[in-house]
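# step 3/5: fold
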Amino acid sequence: MKLYYAPHTCSLSPHIVLRELGLPFDLVKVDNRTRRTADGRDFRTINPKGYVAALELDDGRVLTEGPAIVQYLADLDPESGLAPRAGTWERVRLQEWLNFVATEIHAGSAPLFNTALPEEALACFRARLSSRFDFLQDVLGRQDYLAGASFSVADAYLFTVLGWCRFFSIDLGHWPALQAYVRRIGARPAVLASLHAEAAT
């Protein structure tokens, strides 16, 4: 398989999951400005949407959208525990978390990258994000991981988007359980390996 990625983006999430599962894969870096791959191709010929992540399977099919990719990967090894089996209540709960991270944290953070927005607008987006962090503080004050007692693909995703807080000068120290969660996930060997691999390119 090939994972098309760009550093400091949501493609880190499937990258982590691939390493957690120990699956063989190649990393292909994408320049977000030019939409060119490291080997010179137009990334839009791989993903017409023009953004990472994209996972190219051995048969040439391409899967996009992080929450779909991480579930597909986890289902390649159901015994890994990274996602409950499809059709179970626990799987629906995992999908609930993936949707929350995608719509409330990922999409909620995205406007903060736009420095052309007036400060009043940015303050509104920060306030909305802070309320979501308050919710996560309560959840992660009671359990180590989003879906309960063990690490799942939802944690790979949340860790990834929480990493953007440093770009917005948001101090996670205001949410001690969330800060501890980031440290806990960040210490996982697969996470460290993923971060190292992306920093080296």
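# step 4/5: annotate
The longest strand covers residues 26-31.
# step 5/5: archive (pending)
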